[in-house]
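haha ok so turns out i had the wrong file open the whole time. this is the CORRECT one, sorry everyone. sequence first:
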Amino acid sequence: MQRVERSGLQLSSAHLFAGVFAAACAAAALLIGSFPLQLSIITIFLFAGPHNLMEFRYFAARMPVRWGRSRLFYSVGIGGVLVLASAYLTLYFASGNWLWSEESWAIFAAVWNTAFILWVGTLFYLRGRRRPRRDWNWALPAVFFLAALAWLVPQYWSLSLVYLHPFVALWFLERQIRRTRPEWLRAYHYCLMSVPVFLLILWASLAGRPDLPEDTDLFWRIGQHAGSEILPSVSSHLLVATHVFLETIHYFVWLLLIPLVDKRAIPWRLRDIPLFGNANGFPKAFAVFFAFAALAVVALWAGFAIDYTSMRDIYFAFAISHVLAEFPFLVKML
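then structure:
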């Protein structure tokens, strides 16, 4: 009898999870489709910083105190984040310098993309050595294929990363559900299948809409970030709405869903973080770093309030760090 009751409770909780996910996506699609520019400004202002803090909190809970046989993997992972982020910021902030021609900038960008792809491929290779029962041979041809695309169509490659990045959060959530809430897995897969449906509904409702206004520097930048210059034949209304919708799901996953399925991701449970709670950890150093990260979120809000346009540019430049940091931990969970 207890097993039947527990099974029924798990099933009802899975249904509730799927229902909340679908309702949130429906509400987001409706609001964002109606007010894409306004929602782009609001979501970045409210959730950009907190979701980065939650990501840091999640990754810290999965960083072992002693790396042991994973020393090479974590060294390559963290080293790659530092090197690639530094190179990206150099490219970003120096791109307006008179020493940089359009051709040299394009070559540097393609080199960075290639280095990024090779780094991710190396992480898959190192992970594959630790999982000999699984076939990881597909990673090598995939790396060369993606590297070729990065050189052949660099603009489309960069834009694809903008739209694919939000799905990384959904992948993290899938791996986490497998570990801590396996009874929700089937419901979650239905949730994943609903995302393209909501996108199709959003696109159908926006078909034929004129481009969004670009009469201010901020509105122009929002459109450029969504790809309006790269895809001029597509309505910027549709592009911006699609990007904001996917980013909103990304924030929703990190801020609400991952803490829901993993108790170790609850922000105030610092004792569950090995670097803080373990006897061999570094509690003082971690506490200082975590406090600094929290202050950075407050500083980001202040910067948005003072000069939203400039702070948005700065945020998206430095956001490459958290984008890169996702890959070692995601590959490690495979």
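Residues 2-332 form one domain.
again sry for the mixup
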